[in-house]
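Handout, section B. The chain below has 440 residues.
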Amino acid sequence: MTWWRSLHGQVAAWQRERLVWRADMRRFRAARRAARCGGADGSAAEHPGPPPTGFTLLPWLLLGMGSFSNVIQGETPNPWIGGLGLLAFNSLYVYVTFRAFDRTTRESASTRVALGLLGLVTTGLALGYGGNWLMFFPLLGLATGATLRGPWLGRVGLLLTLYAGAATWLRDGWDDASGIAYATFLSSMVTAAILSLSEAVRELRAAREELARRAVAEERLRFSRDLHDLLGHTLSVVVVKSEAARRLAPRDPDAALAQISDIESVGRQALTEIREAVTGYREGSLATELTRARSALSAASVEPVVRQSGPPLAPQTEALLGWVVREAVTNVVRHSRAGRCDITVEGTAERVRLTVTDNGTGAGTPAAGGGSGGTGLKGLTERLAAAGGSLTAGPAPRGGFTVTADLPVGGDEAATAMGTGTATPAGATATATATAPRVR
């Protein structure tokens, strides 16, 4: 009964594969219909279809129809032995080929054992009957090529070819040996090449889709960071200047109108920056951000003190430092309740350091170094790390809060960081601060 249970298991495996194949075909047809109806973006039209399964190799069993005909017509000695051999060969062939399309099952010991048994059955039938039964050697080569796709394929294929030729020569002479040997070699090598190429194409398509998904995720991250930095800073300036205008309106209408004019300029500039951020062409200027910082701090009754020294910086480095100034000053205005804010830029031939320190209480100020706190400083930490720099933030030794950014002067790493995680601003101007009050 062992052979009956084995046959039953093969039938069950064949049925499972058939269900999987049908499900893949349904998904492929649905994707193709969606592409034709315009419901897809074109990727479905390039879909390679369902992955190949053991059904791809089943039609080659027709090579054994001559042997089957010999058994049916009684032209085979001991037809029961021939019939059982034919059943055993077909069962082993189906088992091996259906397991050859999954890497795990293809490399398992049971598949290799079944392939060895298939070789023994093929040899016995070919040497015992000859003639049409020799066509089982090309089928054995096909199963071997589908199963062995590694570096051993060439050696095993060559040995199998020589073996098939020698067995055929012993049974039916040299005339048939060359044809069977050539068919065995061709079936093993071509099958392995086609299936390996199909698998490689699918892996490349999967890699391309994964890269596309990652690119979309990076663009979403860039856009969310830019919106946070742009709107967070701009809205903070608008709120501070609105409060200043409300306080100044009863006693100094001209100063209040100047603040309202600043609010209008900030709003217009914010609209321009948001449009540029959407297209990914914002390019920051450190000088512009420092000027805006003076204006925002002065409007919030915080005394700005700016010191800058060192050689000129690359545009990408300036852009990253400009984002740090924007975020740090926004946090000072929102959270610090400080009376003074020091912004220091110190550059050397190799690195540049930016420090923003306030003398406030620091209550509610987001922290970056510890991995907690505000989203803005977290995003800046990631940007500077991608550029080969670092960002630390925390309470100052003498009170207040300090944000320190350290970057290499070279622009290559910074350009990479700006391209992958941020968008930076061409043509950002100081329009929003043209009417900024003087530093007190």
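Note. Residues 394 and 402 are 6 Å apart (CA to CA). Compare this with the example in section A.
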